[in-house]
């Protein structure tokens, strides 16, 4: 269990709470059988989902009441994850509306949770459009091949 966090084993895995500790990063040493991780009320500014990739049983993640401005990675990689608790207002942020952001558009469907002025700046054909006005099918990535590495 990470330092200063509370860990409790319940049927099927560990519940880890690092709530309200003033943390600025995800702590190391999360049990591999973690099913729920609470990191609410901290000072996170970046959420790198790669930190959770070895948590194959993760079902719930709470990162609400932080100062997150950057999310790297995709929640699609977590096949058991069914609950993510965070408050997000993306108004005024330049968004690259490609395949990497499609998960967010799908999750926000029918809501105004992302802010009324969350706007795409990339790719060029979506520039200026509200994130929630762009159909999920338009969130695409270019396929590029690198032959110099062969």
UniProtKB/TrEMBL annotation:
Chief location bin: membrane
Domain of life: Eukaryota
Compartments (UniProt record): Membrane
UniProt-listed SUPFAM superfamilies: L domain-like
A family per Pfam: LRRNT
GO process terms (BP): cell adhesion; hemostasis
Gene3D superfamilies from the UniProt entry: Ribonuclease Inhibitor
CC terms in the record's Gene Ontology section: membrane
Domain LRRNT span(s) in chain numbering: 1-36
Lipid metabolism in keyword set: no
Domain LRRCT: 93-142
Entries under InterPro entries matching the protein: Cys-rich_flank_reg_C, GPIb-IX-V_Complex, LRR_dom_sf, LRRNT
Keywords: Cell adhesion, Disulfide bond, Hemostasis, Leucine-rich repeat, Membrane, Signal, Transmembrane, Transmembrane helix
Membrane topology: Single-pass type I membrane protein
Protein name, UniProt field: LRRCT domain-containing protein
Organism: Branchiostoma floridae
Organism phylogeny: Eukaryota, Metazoa, Chordata, Cephalochordata, Leptocardii
